[in-house]
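All the exercises in this workshop are built on plain-text protein records. The record below serves as our worked example for the rest of this section.
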Amino acid sequence: MSVTILIPAFNEEGALPALIERLAALDPKPAEILLVDGGSEDATIALARDAGWRIEKSDKGRALQINAGVAAARGDKVVVLHADTLPPLDMARIIEDTLSDSRIALASFTPLIKGPDKTRWFTTFHNWIKTWYAPLLTRPHHFVRGVRLLFGDHAMFFRKADFLSVDGCTPSDAVMEEADLCVKFAQLGRTKMVPRWVETSDRRIAEWGPLKANWIYFKVGMLWTFGMRKRMADHYPDIR
């Protein structure tokens, strides 16, 4: 396998044990698992080190951490996996097979949002349909070319060389860095959401409630659409 699993993390000691267990069971194995830490003050680094993962350090900020991780990646294909997201056991094989199609520049899995007690089917559906309506409303010239907006909890993946050729994530983006990346990758080819689940935590929905959470997701998306980037982080508080 030539896949680097890149995990940008900050204070994720609560989420990492489940992810460590899942990644240890992957078959086939990836080329490496690389955690890029943004200055954690908890046991994040210790847990990753004990699991045998590579560790890089970066300034805090997911865009900055992703850029640093891709630059350091040893694999020629990279998947950005959030610490609270559990992939299918054949993740590396799916990535290799999908990116064997040279027409696809960027792809992702399909997120299933769930917690210990319930699956958030409404938000899961909204997350899926948003990949269609967001580019249709905001970037229709890309939509007609087959571009879909993918997001961080989708576990996006791509070729390292392609990421570097489009200059990666916009460093100043505090949130919605994935949407910008989709627009950049549109220069190179199609984006695709693979019909295989990744299970992503419902911790934001549990904290905010379903209606507020979906309103926040929509509001932040609209701020991004209209170029109001500096205000996005104010409306998307960190949840751990």
In short: The chain has a mean pLDDT of 88. The radius of gyration is 17 Å. Residues 37 and 172 are 17 Å apart (CA to CA).
